[in-house]
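User: Reviewer 2 asked us to show a designed sequence for the structure in our supplementary figure. I'm pasting the structure tokens here. Could you produce the per-position amino acids so we can include them in the response letter?
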């Protein structure tokens, strides 16, 4: 039920963190994976790791903020494997942690383009191909901060909240074409992004960890299992939902 044999997946942000863990897990479930990252060397490292484990993967350098780059990425999946069945769009940035009135236009634009506009671009490019091949599964990676607010990260909150509603809208539009669209909202997860060592980030980590009922951060592999589920035959009647994998953070 959870196998992805004979499926092809594109995973963005696959060079590290949650994206990498998802790419590996989806490959272990049987899918051929295009591991994409803005850093081509890191994408190749993930693809090589998948191949070392006995899976099928190729790497692609892609800037998810660029329509042309996204189109090339989706075309590579089709050309390399003949079809596109799964899109997991995990590329994202935290942005600067600053009070709202100190945020610049550039702070806002960088986070919104990377974390929200990219999901629109990737989703549109993937869906247009899935419609031709008879359906598929799109998974947007959002955040627990799409549901609850946190100090000093307004652009991130806006982008992730928008991503949840984008997911719902896409799900409605694409359901008649056999394309399911869901989101995963991870809680605070051990990745390079959350290890930033600045005074603001240290305070943010402390405040977040105090609120987690399970009293620990997530590991990236714990988020990856949710992606395998949503991509698989176990979730054929699931669309338009956001799955919170947050240790109970949003329930507290």
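Assistant: Here is a per-position design you can include in the supplement:
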């Amino acid at each position: 039920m959870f196998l992805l044999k004979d499926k092809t997946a594109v995973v963005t942000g696959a060079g590290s963190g949650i994206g990498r863990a998802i790419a590996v897990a989806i490959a272990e479930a049987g899918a051929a994976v295009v591991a994409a990252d803005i850093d081509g060397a890191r994408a190749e490292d993930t693809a090589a790791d998948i191949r070392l484990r006995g899976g099928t993967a190729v790497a692609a350098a892609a800037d998810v903020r660029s329509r042309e780059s996204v189109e090339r990425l989706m075309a590579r999946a089709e050309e390399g494997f003949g079809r596109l069945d799964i899109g997991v769009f995990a590329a994202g940035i935290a942005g600067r942690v600053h009070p709202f009135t100190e945020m610049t236009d550039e702070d806002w634009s960088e986070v919104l383009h990377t974390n929200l506009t990219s999901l629109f671009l990737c989703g549109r490019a993937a869906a247009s191909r899935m419609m031709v091949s008879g359906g598929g599964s799109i998974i947007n990676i959002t955040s627990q901060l799409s549901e609850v607010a946190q100090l000093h990260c307004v652009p991130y909150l806006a982008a992730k909240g928008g991503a949840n509603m984008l997911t719902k809208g896409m799900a409605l539009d694409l359901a008649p074409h056999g394309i399911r669209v869901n989101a995963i909202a991870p809680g605070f997860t051990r990745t390079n992004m959350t290890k930033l060592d600045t005074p603001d980030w240290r305070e943010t980590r402390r405040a977040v960890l105090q609120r987690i009922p399970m009293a620990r951060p997530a590991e990236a592999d714990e988020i990856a299992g949710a992606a395998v589920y949503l991509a698989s035959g176990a979730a054929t009647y699931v669309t338009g939902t956001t799955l919170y994998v947050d240790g109970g953070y949003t329930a507290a």
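For the response letter, you might also mention the following. Helices lie at 17-28, 40-52, 67-81, 105-133, 154-174, 199-211, 220-231. The mean pLDDT is 94.
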